[in-house]
Amino acid sequence: MVDLGGAAQRTADQLAEGRAGVVVAALADGEAEVRAAGAVTADTVFELGSVSKVFTSLALAALVTEGLVELDQPLAELLPEAAGLQRRGVPVTLRQLAQHTSGLPRLPHGMLLPALLNPGRPDPYAKLAEPVLLGTLRRTKLGAVPGSRFRYSNLGAGLLGLALARRAGTDYEGLIAGRISAPLGLTDTAVTPADPGQLAQGHDRRARPVPGWDLAALAGAGGLRGTAADLVTFLRAQLAPEQGPLAEAIALSRTPEHRLNPFSWIHLGWMGQRLHPRQGGHLQLWHNGATGGFSSFVGFDPGAGVGVAVLTNTQRSVDGSGGALLTDLATAVSDQAVR
To answer: Where is the Beta-lactamase-related domain (predicted)?
Structure first.
């Protein structure tokens, strides 16, 4: 039996050196353990940052299975304000937004220079209300023909969340609540926490307290908040999709595949990679996230049936430790099976 609790606690303790607080969840063989270090617990709410993108993409898959949208539907059919987002006559589609192949820039028009000149500016997205965001599209140019190459875009993911919410007749909060949280039984995954008192104080890289981020109309790119306990539930659904209420949507989210190189690709939201044979050759699906005061990593190995979630209320990456823990768990389970 894999020592999930010990592995999670060792990772949490290691990461806590230089971070305000860390929560680590480890899953294997249908079991899960959550461990914390610092002034946080399994029920502490964290900003998830770009981990929100896998929820947005799963909402896309859910709406496709409901017949409300199509993967290759042009964005402009849901957001007429995006009618100019095309190149060589090729329009941006919903699939491309989820796979970062739309050609859109990383940030909305006018945000890049201020971000470069003042990287520590609090809450850089706060003023991007829907009219402001959609107004920037008139001045937005695509860097490539849609569908031709990968170009990570917060703008694209945010527009996807906005478009899906509009088609579903709600806002992004309502979209995630109705299509993801309610079916899976997530109690604390939302733009606005049910109990704001559970939201951790964020810290910058120097451990100084910083204000939280509000992604406004770009919430689909990184505006969700949540707990390790909810991420355990979310990972269980990913590891055994045939047993859950979103089985069809989860299967669909894994079907489209845009290759980045022979060893890595992107599905709808999830990044995929095949580790080198010297590392066990395991398949990993993952996504990370960061805001001004938080960092996150969520990943799983569908073949080995293991998953990992790492959350911290400090803006220092946890990707390396999260990925290493995922690989160690997968290796341990595989070795156990061989015996």
So the answer is: 10-324
